[in-house]
Amino acid sequence: SVMVTDGETIVYCSVCMADTPSDPSDFFPMSVHYQERLSAAGRTSGGFFKREGRAKDHEVLVCRLIDRPLRPTMPKGFYYETQILSWVFSYDGIHSPDCVAVTAAGIAMALSEVPNKQTIAGVRIGMINDQFVVNPTTEQMEDSELDLMMAGTDSAILMIEGFCDFLTEEKLLQAVETGQVAIREICKAIDVLVQTCGKKKMVEAINLPPAELYRHVEDISGDELVKALQIKEKIPRRKALSALEEKVIMILSEQGYVSKDELSGPIENLADIVEEEDEDEVIEDGEVDEGDVHIKPVSRKPHRQLFSEVDVKLVFKEVSSKYLRRRIVEGEKRSDGRSACELRPINSQCGILPRAHGSALFTRGETQVRHWLWSL
């Protein structure tokens, strides 16, 4: 846990982790909760309920700002459920707490046992009188032509969100570079803090699928996977990939590679190894007398390595992503046949609802959005 201060704005952030890992999945089990308390500004609710209720829209958006840069830094194979709690303890009305909360989450995660790969930090960039300002005050933001929220590591930008007043692309790139420099300085300071009081990372808790499984999945699904990824329609493509995944699991099961449980190999029955001693029992040749227990000699035959069905599904998804990326980078074609710079077909229709004051249907590829307007 950590408390980060900017002026008189104070944000507290803690990272908690479950004692036991969750079931393996392709989605890291992390949740973020951000709350701006009324007491932070010295106020109280004027209604019947005096405590904070459900999260406001702004607080949900800040949760996303925290989640987006942190999630890519989490290692694959780490399944311990992690919770990030971020509370605004004090707000001076001058320094915004959202960018402070992102940095506080990055510090708390770096100090914790969670084996994240890199440290993150967040800053806000404004532009006043054609000059970039890092973490401007609320008063300065009233005259700013740019409101750019950034988060990243010392070497890369992981999240950008904001708006501007018709700035050129060159100005935006300069703003990003300014933010990257500020983030790099913060990350270096965090690394120094971690060396002083950081906890040991749970690297041993990372459970990756065996490397041999990748080779088996690629050998079985290779050509069929390439053909399935070339299907243009989304739903038929998903059905083809799902059917191919089931085929891979079935073939590996028939070959004796897939186990329905999570064990990586066969376990001998304890009753077959250990027997209680009877009073009149005679020790036979080949047995070892260990007092009250007789241990039978166990054959040490090599067993074929078993993979869990969950690991097969995770590996199949990674292999599919690798093949799809290779197709886009090398072949310069997406699954629906478009090039990297080609947009999906766009279509708009107006007046589809006769009784509404205004209505429209917007279609882009296979995505449709309907809007309508009415008045009381």
UniProtKB/TrEMBL annotation:
SUPFAM superfamilies (alphabetical): Polynucleotide phosphorylase/guanosine pentaphosphate synthase (PNPase/GPSI), domain 3, Ribonuclease PH domain 2-like, Ribosomal protein S5 domain 2-like
Alphabetized GO MF terms: 3'-5'-RNA exonuclease activity; polyribonucleotide nucleotidyltransferase activity; RNA binding
Organism from which the protein derives: Aegilops tauschii subsp. strangulata (Goatgrass)
Pfam families from the UniProt entry: RNase_PH (PF01138), RNase_PH_C (PF03725)
Domain of life of the native organism: Eukaryota
The keyword Thylakoid appears for this protein: no
GO annotation terms (biological process): mitochondrial mRNA catabolic process; mitochondrial RNA 3'-end processing; mRNA processing; rRNA processing; tRNA processing
Domain Exoribonuclease phosphorolytic: 1-115, 120-180
Similarity annotation: Belongs to the polyribonucleotide nucleotidyltransferase family.
InterPro entries tied to this protein: ExoRNase_PH_dom1, ExoRNase_PH_dom2, ExoRNase_PH_dom2_sf, PNPase, PNPase/RNase_PH_dom_sf, PNPase_PH_RNA-bd_sf, Ribosomal_Su5_D2-typ_SF
Lineage start: Eukaryota, Viridiplantae, Streptophyta, Embryophyta, Tracheophyta
GO cellular component: chloroplast stroma; cytosol; mitochondrion
EC number, UniProt record: 2.7.7.8
Enzyme class: transferase
Protein name: polyribonucleotide nucleotidyltransferase
Keywords: Exonuclease, Hydrolase, mRNA processing, Nuclease, Nucleotidyltransferase, RNA-binding, rRNA processing, Transferase, tRNA processing
